[in-house]
Amino acid sequence: MSMPTAEVPFEIVHKWQEIVNIIAEIIHVPSALVMKVEPPNIKVFVSSESHSNPYESNELAPLNTGLYCETVMKTRQSLLVPDALRDKEWKSNPDIKLGMISYLGFPVSWPDGQIFGTICVLDRKENSYSELYRKFVLQCRDVLEADLRALARLSGELTRSEAYLEEAQRLSHTGSFGWRVSTGEIVWSKESFRIFGYDNSLAVTLDMVIQRVHPEDRALVQRTLERASKEGKDFDDEYRLLMPDGSIKHVHVVAHAVRDHADELEFIGAVMDVTEARRVEEQMHQARAELAHVARVTTLGELTAAIAHEINQPLAAVVTGGRASLRWLAHEPPNLEETRSSVEDIIDSGIRAGEVISRLRAMMKKSPAQRELLNINDAILAVIALVSAEAQRNRVILRTELSNDLPLVRGDRIQLQQVILNLIMNAIEAMRGIDQTQREVFVVSRKDGFKGALVEVQDSGPGLEGLAIDRLFDAFYTTKPDGMGIGLAVSRTIIESHGGQLRALPSVPKGAVFQFRLPTNAEVIE
Ligand SMILES: Nc1ncnc2c1ncn2[C@@H]1O[C@H](COP(=O)(O)OP(=O)(O)O)[C@@H](O)[C@H]1O
Ligand SMILES: [Mg+2]
Q1: Quick check: pTM over 0.70?
Q2: Same domain, 392 and 252
Q3: Are 525 and 371 in contact (CB under 8 A)?
Q4: Are 327 and 190 contained in the same domain?
Q5: Do residues 414 and 386 touch, judged by C-beta distance below 8 A?
Q6: Interatomic CA distance for residues 482 and 15, integer angstroms
Q7: Residue 429, pLDDT above cutoff 90
Q8: Same domain, 495 and 429
Q9: Average of per-residue pLDDT across 13-42
Q10: What is the residue with the minimal CA distance to atom 13 of ligand 1?
Q11: What spacing in Å lies between the alpha carbon of 472 and ligand 1's midpoint?
C-alpha cells in the first residue's frame, strides 16, 4: 500500500526540518540529517540549520561508496561509529573528507518495510552519544515513520479514489478536463483521451481538439471556444467528432469558468460521449415516423370508399363530356362552340380527379420530415378536400372559419395534415351514434397571441365525459371496436416536435374540442 515514490508534502518536510534542528542543538553536533534513498543516489533530504554544517539539503551522493548511511540501510540496523579514524572498517569512508569522524544513525522505513532512508547525527570529534541521546534520536525516527505511515495511507486512499473516479468515468463515458486559457495548457483524464482517441502520453493542445472535431462542426466549436475564452463564460455544447477510422462520435461538452489564485481564467469541464444515446434517439425517431406513416395509411384506408366516390364523379363527368362533344361534332355543320365548352368541362374534371389522387399520394408517401414555412389554412383545406366526401357519407356538416391574418408556421406539411386529418376523422367517428340532423364539425384557425397559430376541431358528438381524459393521448388507447388508438398519440408527438401543444377540452353546449397551438418561430424541431 505504501508508495516509495510518494512525494513528502511541504508541511512534513518543514516539521522534519524542525526535528533535525532540535536534535543538532540538544546533542551539540554540527549535523543532524534525514537521508532519503533515490537509487543510484542517496539524497540529503533535510539537514539541520546548525553552525558549520557541511551538508546541504537536496545534495546527492552516489551509493556504493561506503557511506555510513548505506550500511544502516543495507543492514536495517542502527549504527554507531564513535571515531572512524580509529576504526579499521571506517577509516576510508567519504564523510571523513568533510571532517565527520563520528556517526549515529537509524534506518527509516515505509510502513510496508521498504527503506525510506536514515536519520543520523555526525560530529567532527570523537563521540559515543550517550544512551539518552540514542533514545532521543530513536524517538525522532519513530515520529518520522509515523508520518510516513499517514502519508502512505493518504496516498493509498487517493490512488483508490482516483481509481474509482477513473472507473466511473469509463463506465459513464464521461471524461474530465481543465483548460488554462492564458497558457493554452490542457489536462485530460484518461477517459477524455479515450473519447478523443489520442494516446494518453501526448500533451494535449487545442489544435488536437479542433483536429478531431467533424469538419462541419469545426467553425461552431472554434467560435464557442473563442467566445468562451474572451468572455470567460461557461459553455455547454454538443458536436461531432470524426475519428481516424471514419466513425463519428457525438460528444456533449460542459465547462465551467473559474479564476485561479492568480486571477487567470480556467475552464473545468466534462466531455460525455453521447453517441449511443443519439443512435437510440435516431432509432426512436425512425420508429415514430414509421408509426405515423402506418397511422396515416390506416386512416386514409378508412377514407377509400369516399375517395373512390369522389374520383368517380369527375370520371363520370369526363365520359359525359366526351359523349356530348361527339354529339356536337356530329351536327351538320359541327357546332364547334358547344364542342369547345364540353372539352373544357372534360379538362376541368380531369384536373379535379388528378388533384384528389395527388393529394392522396402525397399523404401516402413515406418521406423524411421537411420543414418549410407554411400557412396552416392551406393544410386544413387540403385535408377538408380529402374528407368532405366521407363527411357527406356520414351526414356530417363540415364548416370552417379560417382566419386570414395567420402568421406562417415552420413545419412539415404532411405531418400537420395528418394531425388535422386524425382530428376530423375522430370527430366524424364520434358522432356516428347521434341524431343525423345534429352532426356538425367546425374547424377554426386563428392567431394565437402575438406569434402563434391555433387550430381547433370541434364536434357536436358525445364529448369526453366518462373517458379517461389523461389517457386519450396514450398509444393504443381506444374505445372503438375496430380502433387502433394511435391517432391521438401520433398527433401529439407531431405537434410537440413542432414546439406546440395539443389538448382536448369539453365543448359547449356539447361535444369535444381538440385544439393545437404552434409557435411561428419554432426552431425547436428535430
Ligand atoms: N372527438 C372525439 N370525441 C370523443 N372522443 C374522442 C374524440 N376523439 C378521440 N376520442 C377518444 O379518444 C380515443 C383515441 O383516439 P385515437 O387515438 O384517434 O384512436 P382511435 O381513433 O383509433 O380510437 C378514441 O377511441 C375515443 O375514445
Ligand atoms: Mg382516431
Answers
A1: no
A2: no
A3: yes
A4: no
A5: no
A6: 86
A7: yes
A8: yes
A9: 95
A10: 478
A11: 7
Give the pLDDT score at 2: 37
305 lies in a domain? yes
Domain annotation covers residue 234 = yes
Q: Is the pLDDT of residue 497 over 80?
A: yes
Cα–Cα nearest to 490, from 302, 298, 361: 298
> Beta partners for 236?
254
Ranking 159-163, 288-292, 397-401, 482-486 by mean pLDDT, the lowest is: 288-292
What grid cell was written down for 513? 374540442
Q: Is 418 in the pocket of ligand 1 (CB under 6 A)?
A: no
pLDDT tier at 65 (50, 70, 90 boundaries)? confident
In this structure, the residue with its CA closest to atom 5 of ligand 1 is 464
What H or E segment, with its residue span, contains residue 236?
strand 235-242
Classified as helix, coil or strand, 233 is coil
Range 48-64 average pLDDT: 91
- Of 478, 507, 514, the one to substitute when testing ligand 1's pocket (max ligand atoms within 8 A of C-beta) is 478
Q: Which of 297, 387, 426 to mutate to test the pocket of ligand 1 (most atoms within 8 A of CB)?
A: 426
Percent of the chain residues past pLDDT 90, beyond the cut: 67
Nearest ligand 1 atom to alpha carbon 475 = 17
Residues with CB under 5 A from ligand 2 (ion): 426, 487
Single out the residue of 468, 443, 437, 454 nearest to residue 501, CA to CA. 454
Domain that holds residue 34: 10-156
Instruction: State which ligand 1 atom lies nearest to the alpha carbon of 488.
Output: 17
Instruction: Establish whether residue 511 lines the binding site of ligand 1, counting it when its CB lies within 6 angstroms of any ligand atom.
Output: no
Residues 181 and 147 in one domain: no
Q: Mind spelling out the 3-state secondary structure of 256-296?
A: EEEECCCCCEEEEEEEEECHHHHHHHHHHHHHHHHHHHHHH
| Residue 484 near ligand 1, beta carbon < 6 Å | yes
Task: Identify the nearest ligand to the CA of 433 by its number.
Answer: 1
Helix (H, G, I), strand (E, B) or coil at 408: coil
The CATH number linked to 187 is 3.30.450.20
254 and 349 both lie in a single domain = no
Residue 5 is predicted with a pLDDT of: 53
CA 525 to centroid of ligand 1, rounded, Å: 26
